[in-house]
Design goal:
alpha/beta, two-stranded parallel ribbon, seven-stranded parallel β-sheet, 306 residues, globular, 13 strands
Length: 306
């Protein structure tokens, strides 16, 4: 088997490459030229790295190269501030279509695009494939549009299509701006960490589990379906943070409760569009593909700390 993918320097991209290496799957990995994260892409005989920016995908000539599946993971302007950049996300929709056109040139039989929980907006029920969508920020609107447009384009190209909506993922090679990464860095350094009350219900999934889910969706996902990807288990965010504090104390040899004193719950106020319930319903994903998360939050965080 051989796959092609964008976003090779992302946390999920690296996890997918490692998973493919373990399964003896070849990878054609597209990455942004000159990226400071190029060195985190695994070097292996299974992996061929192509430095190609998103706006250059339309010009890439695969010559006689062929792949089985195409994973489109790359997405520009994903930081908190960038999520409101309308122009950047309009461009992202175009890049998604460029990616599926490239998938056709590579003779791929299926295109798998990675969306986001932001496509749903604020919802107080577990997120399923048929949960009504009402995105409220440009990032979510564009992800939803990219999923729909790429599905139409896939039909035109006689290619199978799946769109996945990934919830809060964490793990090695995460960017420093995410909650879990910034939390761990602060607490390991003994610094104060300001956060919300933490009463929102959250669902964290390890990037290695996301990678496994992506491969299963490629091989077994039903054509045209949308699959939310999460652990399927929700807890108050405060409980997750308290567990991280306990694990940091364990690692440092501190008395239990020491690190928790560095967390300022309630110091960050909820925004007007704050999502208060974020849990995936993965029953359909499990039924169709057999996916079951394997990495507990405790073991995933402990590995990151170590």
């Amino acid at each position: 088997m051989k796959i092609a993918m964008t976003g090779a320097t992302s946390m999920i991209g690296v996890a997918l490459i490692k998973n493919c290496i373990d399964k003896d799957i070849e990878v054609l990995a597209f990455a942004n030229p000159g990226s400071k994260r190029l060195d985190i892409i695994p070097r292996d005989e299974h992996v061929r790295i192509v430095e190609c920016a998103l706006d250059e995908l339309k010009n890439y000539d695969p010559i006689d190269e062929k792949c089985d599946y195409f994973f489109h993971i790359a997405w520009a302007a994903t930081t908190h501030a960038g999520r409101n950049d309308v122009k950047a996300h309009i461009d992202n929709i175009e890049y998604t279509i460029d990616a599926i056109n490239l998938a056709s040139k590579l003779k791929c039989k299926k295109f798998i695009g990675t969306g986001s929980q932001a496509e749903y907006g604020r919802v107080n029920v577990p997120l399923a494939s048929d949960t009504p969508v009402n995105p409220e920020v440009p990032y979510g609107v564009a992800k939803l549009a990219a999923g729909g447009m790429s599905r139409i384009r896939a039909n035109q190209l006689e290619m199978e299509h799946n769109w996945v909506r990934i919830l809060s993922s964490y793990g090695p090679n995460d960017t420093q701006q995410t909650l879990m990464s910034s939390l761990l860095r602060s607490l390991m350094a003994g610094k104060h960490f300001a956060t919300s009350e933490g009463i929102q219900i959250w669902d964290f999934i390890h990037c290695d589990d996301v990678a496994k889910a992506l491969l299963l969706v490629a091989q077994k996902g039903k054509n045209g379906k949308v699959y939310p990807i999460g652990s399927g288990v929700g807890r108050p965010l405060r409980e997750f943070i308290e567990e991280v504090c306990t694990l940091v104390d364990e690692r440092k040899g501190n008395p239990k409760g020491t690190t928790l004193k560095n967390v300022g719950f309630g110091e960050v106020k909820y925004g007007q569009l704050q999502i208060m319930h974020l849990v995936a319903d993965i029953s359909e994903l499990t039924e169709d593909t057999g996916f079951v998360p394997q990495i507990s939050f405790e073991s995933g965080v402990r590995a990151m700390i170590n």
